[in-house]
Amino acid sequence: MNFIKLEVLVLISKYNKVTTVAEKLGIKQPTVTFHMKSLEKLLGITLFEVHGGYTVLTEPGEVLLHYANKILKLRDEAERATSEFSLLKRGSFKLGASYVPSTYLIPEVLKAMKKDYPRLEISVTSSPSSSIIQMVLDHELDAGIICSMEVHNPGIIYKKIYQDELGLVFSPNNPLVGCEVLEKQDLINKTFVHHSKVSSTRRLVEKWLEKNKVYFASIIQLDSLESIKHILMSTDWISIISKKAVEEEIKRGKLIYRELPEEPIERDIYVVYNKDRWLSPVMKKFFEAF
Q: What residue ranges carry the coiled-coil annotation (predicted)?
């Protein structure tokens, strides 16, 4: 199939230079101009204008751009899905995951998939759950693994694969180590290490803290879970972290995990995919891994 006219439109919107578009596509500049004029003739409307040496899209061009992006993403998805039927089982699979699943669940899944599809190219994108959902909706990802969100998108299929628990984590040198069962007052006026604001974990933690009226002497924010774990090891600070994320540190005696007082924080982890996505052999193999 020939999608080059739509590719020209998308690249013009990005670079605003015919010469740059020609370079990106590996074709000559007159060929790019031909496809621009051909697309305008086909639709009977002006899509491109030149202003100050830059080529820009007209308002109808911007409307077409919206659909061109969708069409090209669907094309890429279709190519990935159909490529799996070649005799050599080649192809690609694009997976997205929020931090905890990408670090602590995906490695075993990838090993299982590569066993049956050794020539399959697999890419993993790590982003917050909300970003993964949007990328799945936009057909930029074949599937995702996310931590639970309060509202499920109707355009997404959700399959629960794991229930995660969050608890209090601190160093073995922290005075709290002597408390097998924590009370709310044990947490008050401590230095607390928070997750980044885009983290779904942070939203759950903030909701729990507000409900239980737990306040800290000071709060430190770190963007990386690994950074949080390392700083807890060397201080008497505390944090609320996924139990799955600290399993190895607990085994090695580097960190201590305690259940939260009053009520636990539990969240589901889901495999997600676009409801319009065809379940290819690779997709089915992916689901079998859970």
A: none
Q: Which helix (H) or strand (E) holds 167?
A: strand 156-170
pLDDT tens digit sequence for 147-172: 876 778 999 999 999 889 999 999 99
Residue 277 and residue 77 in contact, taking contact as beta carbons nearer than 8 Å:
yes
What average pLDDT is seen over the chain? 89
| Range(s) of the domain holding residue 171 | 86-290
Give the contacts of 187 (CB within 8 A, at least 6 positions apart).
168, 214, 216, 238, 261
Angle at which helix 59-83 crosses helix 4-15, to 10 degrees, equals 120
Task: Tell me the whole-structure pTM to 2 decimals.
Answer: 0.68
CATH number of 290's domain? 3.40.190.290
Q: Do 93 and 20 sit in the same domain of this protein? A: no
Question: Can you tell me the distance from the alpha carbon of 149 to that of 78, in angstroms, rounded to the nearest whole number?
Answer: 28
Q: Identify whether residues 54 and 118 lie together within a single domain.
A: no
Residue 74: Cβ-neighbour burial (10 angstroms; 0-12, 13-18, 19+)? middle
Q: Which two tokens stand for residue 224?
A: 């990386």
pLDDT profile of the chain (290 residues), mean per 10 = 86 94 92 92 93 92 92 84 61 87 86 84 89 92 86 90 93 92 90 88 91 92 92 96 93 95 89 89 82
C-alpha 226/C-alpha 47 separation (Å) is 49
The neighbour count for residue 277, using CB atoms within 10 Å, is 18
158 residue type, one letter: Y
Beta partners for 144?
96, 272
